[in-house]
Amino acid sequence: MSQMQHFPIFLNTRSGRIVVSGGGDAAVAKLRLLLKTEARIEVYASSADDEITGWAKSGQLRLVTRDVREGDLVGAQLVYAAHEDDLLDMRIVALAKRAGALINVVDDLENSEFITPAIVDRDPVTIAIGTEGAAPVLARKIKADLEARLPVQLGALARIGKTFRHAVEALPFGRARRDFWRDYYESKGPIAIASGEDAVEPALETLLVDHMSRTARAGHVAFVGAGPGDPELLTLKARRLLDEADVVIYDRLVSPSILELARREAHLIDVGKTGFGPSTPQEHINALIADHGTKGRQVVRLKGGDCTVFGRLDEEIDALDAAGVSWQIVPGITAASASVAALGQSLTKRGRNASVRLITGHDMQGFADHDWADLARDGQVAAIYMGKKAARFIQGRLLMHGASHDTPVSLVENASLPSQSIIGTTLANLPKDLAKADLDGPVLTFLGLAPRAAASQTSQMTQELA
After folding, report:
1. Are strands 357-360 and 382-385 parallel, antiparallel or unpaired?
2. What pairing do the DSSP bridges indicate for beta strands 247-250 and 267-270?
3. Which residues are marked as active site?
């Protein structure tokens, strides 16, 4: 997971002082935003733009018609150096650091201790958009997109809802309150405000009475397929359940970018398993899921790919049935679908194969056994999960049962992710080429399919190994 250089916070400026040094266009641009705060604004400039002078005359800020001196910045919350002159700005940087004030130099990321994000203002709802200073144009585009999507009445809904927060404390802390506010912001509130702001508070009171009469929601487990790793390949239902979950119990192959979609308050539990390596016992996973469900929590059991494919799903469902906990299954894109898409191929093709097999390279006892004689026939296609360590075993079984040495084999590592790589080889060269590639991510092996040329060109790291 990448680390943030700038940590986003919302600073209380009600009793603070913000200083802007400079009186030109850069200072004006910053002041238009800063004047929305409750801070005391001071501008130091020997020559100031007419707009700044006008703000000073109307009492919106204090204008000091000279350069900043030693001691002027003591006690300031924030300082902006906006001279657009390197020597003048560096002088302000030195003064600010001696005064212990945070400094921002306009359009100078390296010398700034903080940056000002692009902001979507739906007072009191504020959305800050930052790109670590790398792409301000992109931040403005995102801001424009959000401005278009967020209703103008959103601020009024939040403002009225804020006055009702104490009344909602009558509901139990946690999920009951979250459910209330979700109903308000997603349904009852927007409907009420369409008739005018006066209709919102009565709607809140009715909604509160309704929620207070409800019994606590029973625990529930959603088995969710996380897909091959790309967050954009998650289903809409999967994203909604992640956002609502109290507990997320996830497997090793679930990518960090997908876990980021869970609520910040959600309890994340890693129960990863490694083939032929350290693993969380399945009995422990079963008991863990059932325990959280019986305690009334909304649980997402998050599995890589599709949760119905090689995911020990039946055992976990049996544990929930025994504990009397309700459950549902939310399918995801399995690794076979994502990987064959990376190859630019289809799993079935008229004249080549009318069926495809999804098989595993190993099971609980070790290397898995299959109908090798049938798999060895010309034109057969199989997607082999967890086949990396079983490659030599699979090769031996297939050749023993008459498979051609030239049978195409494709290996797809980290399907759908930026680190995706594709290797095209043959059955005869499979173990050698796999060892040479030294793949350390999850790999899906396709028997009977070669990478399409277009897929090889667009793959970030395609290897054709002899």
Report:
1. parallel
2. parallel
3. 251, 273
